[in-house]
Amino acid sequence: MTTPASPQLPPTPPAGAGARPLQLGLRQNAAQFTLLVVVNALVGGMLGQERTVLPLLGEREFGLTAYTAGLTFILVFGLAKAATNYVAGTLSDRHGRKPVLVAGWLVAVPVPLLLIWAPSWGWVIFANVLLGISQGLTWSTTVIMKIDLVGPARRGLAMGLNEAAGYGAVALTALVTGYLAEAYGLRPAPFLVGIAFAALGLGLSAVAVSETREHARLEAGSHVARGDGRHDHLHEGLGDREVFLQTSLREPALSSASQAGLVNNLNDGLAWGLLPILFAGAGLSVSRIGILAALYPAVWGVGQLLTGALSDRWGRKWMIAAGMWLQAVALAIIAVADTFGAWAFAAALLGAGTAMVYPTLLAAIGDVAHPAWRARSVGVYRLWRDGGFAVGALLAGVVADALGVRAAVWTVAALTAASGVVVAVRMYETHHPGRQTGREEPRR
After folding, report:
1. Using an 8 Å Cβ cutoff, are 380 and 243 in contact?
2. Running DSSP on this structure, what letter comes out for residue 250?
3. Boundaries of each Major facilitator superfamily (MFS) profile domain copy (predicted)?
């Protein structure tokens, strides 16, 4: 049975007298694109406020001894963010990108306050449900808006800039909060930074950000056919169910990207929730743990400035596969190392591998998905990708409780290597240099 198609992108309203016509491209939309980069950096900062402090808070202030219990905050964060990613894509198509972005910031405002005042771990769990919802709405929307603005030619570069800003801010905030926690304690000082980020992000999104949905419609009307006919079935009028199935299971590139995204965030959940505890158990200070917690997303963030653009030149498939394998090697080094220097090297390696994968996966989704349902496809991909936080938290916690933290790291390393094999075997190349689009011409 054919699922009824969701409402298509609404017609672009006619420009008023003297209005500047819509154009696609990074240079043509530089001001708005730059503003969205800043907004996404603030989104990343909201996540970064937890990276160093929260695992230690659970252990030292709330007395959590079981790894599975301590990772519940990542589990609920991942579930909330994954589900919200899917909703964000659908809402962005139906109601516009900007309202979804502003709503996400409104949800973020209470998060640092709850973390400061939490009298029990249950409050921390609730704060992370709100953080997951907020991240799903805000980060998904900034991704969709940047894809809307730049068009197909420089999509990898655009995603590299977006993710570099977000994860660069994660790294910087993790570093800053580590030093604040060392100097002033685990609460409230580290979370005051989050209050400032939420206020600034909400203000910029409500006042300065412009709607980009009309840019997606402009791109939808100017497709160049893909020569091999591979995407003939991915026409303009796919319904929600079909978009979900194509992105999750049926379409080789879309589904390969979805599983790789899930495994990537599975190992990120491990890095977030268990590695600070591993490092603390080896006697490292909070400030040194903060350095390690920051180094991984710092290399990840900065590296994407290069890898996103390189995927526009070299293609997506092998960048993704190689990145997954590099992450697996880095995790193996973490599992066997026991010194700050070795862990620092492995953290940098893990960041480099993630940088190869993260913007490239988003660019591949943008290559294949039609603009009429691209926001929904991005939402489905991010549903699976950020579901990896929940899977990683549960898997890593269970294995760590049964066999120890290092066994959990080895388990995740093996899964990451296997994910790279899936990409190498199943995914096809979605972008070829010189070709302006990886999608078919709309059916008439």
Report:
1. yes
2. I
3. 29-431
229-238 pLDDT tens trace: 455 455 566 7
Condensed to tens digits (0 to 9), the pLDDT of residues 317-345 reads 999 999 999 999 999 999 999 999 999 99
Q: Is the dihedral of CA 386, 389, 394, 399 positive or negative?
A: positive
The residues near 366 (Cβ < 8 Å, ≥ 6 apart) are: 147, 152, 155, 159, 374, 378
Look at the pTM and tell me if it is higher than 0.70: yes
Measure the CA dihedral 134/136/142/143, to 10°.
170
Q: How far is CA 182 from CA 44, 47, 53, 74, 281, in A?
A: 22, 19, 10, 23, 17
Cβ atoms 24, 228 nearer than 8 A: no
Block residue for tokens 């030149």:
313
Element (H, E) at 382: helix 374-403
351/355 Cα distance (integer angstroms): 6
Instruction: Pick out the chain residues at pLDDT < 50.
Output: 1-7, 12-18, 225, 227-229, 232, 436-444
Say if CB 426 and CB 252 are below 8 A apart: yes
Residue 239 pairs with which residues in a beta bridge? Answer: 5
What is the DSSP annotation of 385-397?
Answer: HHHHHHHHHHHHH
Q: What is the CATH number of domain 30-211+234-426?
A: 1.20.1250.20
Contact indicator for 18, 143 with CB cutoff of 8 Å: no
Q: What angle do CA 79, 128, 403 make, to 5 degrees?
A: 70
pLDDT digits (tens, 9 = 90+) for 22-80: 888 888 898 999 999 999 999 999 998 888 888 888 888 888 776 777 778 888 988 99
Cα–Cα distance for residue pair 313/248, rounded to 1 Å:
27
